[in-house]
Structures are given as structure tokens and as C-alpha cells.
Design goal:
The protein is mainly α and about 100 residues long. Helices cover about 45% and strands about 0% of the residues. The longest helix is centred in the last third of the chain and has 27 residues. Bound molecules: zinc ion (ZN). The site of zinc ion has 8 residues, from helix 1. Zinc ion (ZN) binds next to helix 1.
């Protein structure tokens, strides 16, 4: 049974949420940055937070994410297309149309 190992938080043993931290540690780090007690650079330097993924992507893990992103983008396009079809079909959402002119 190969269970997928979830990455653990840098500061505690909980499952990572973002930037190498679990949700509560991430919120705490964000709070430090927002309140000006620490800069992101300081946290990065001390290894308390990981750099944002979109900056330097590690080569080994890009494939899966890219694929997923492409899939999501496709889904969005499909949804958009679907809405357009509905629109041209005479469906106007919240706009009341008493009688459809022939
Ligand atoms: Zn944590």
C-alpha cells in the first residue's frame, strides 16, 4: 500500500498548506509580514517560509502541476463557452424577458 506522503510543515508536524507551512503557521507568517514585524526576505533567510512557487519552480515537480493547470484552463474555457451558448440561446439570466419577440 503506497500511500501518497504529504509534505509536512517546516515548523510543526501538520500537513503543508502553502509555502512549506501548514495553514496556521502560514497564517502566522503572513501576519508577521503584514504587520511589518518581519519581511518576507527575513523569513526566507531563516528558512521559516519557502519561496513562492511561481518564482523558481523546481524542475522535478512541474509536470504534474502544469498538466493540472492546463486541465483547469480547459475547464474554464468550456464553462465560458457554455455560458455563451446559453446567452445566444435567448437565456438572459436575471434580465426579465416577458415575451420573446418572434
Ligand atoms: Zn505548522
Amino acid at each position: 500500500m503506497a500511500k501518497k506522503r504529504l509534505p509536512k510543515c517546516l515548523r510543526c508536524k501538520r500537513v503543508q498548506f502553502a509555502r512549506g507551512l501548514c495553514r496556521s503557521c502560514y497564517e502566522a507568517a503572513r501576519h508577521l509580514m503584514r504587520s511589518g514585524q518581519k519581511t518576507e526576505a527575513q523569513l526566507l533567510e531563516k528558512g521559516l517560509i519557502l519561496p513562492a512557487k511561481r518564482m523558481g519552480r523546481p524542475k522535478s515537480t512541474t509536470g504534474e502541476n502544469e498538466e493540472r493547470l492546463a486541465q483547469l484552463e480547459k475547464e474554464v474555457e468550456t464553462l465560458k463557452a457554455g455560458r455563451n451558448v446559453l446567452h445566444t440561446d435567448g437565456y438572459h439570466g436575471c434580465q426579465p424577458m416577458p415575451e420573446h419577440p418572434a
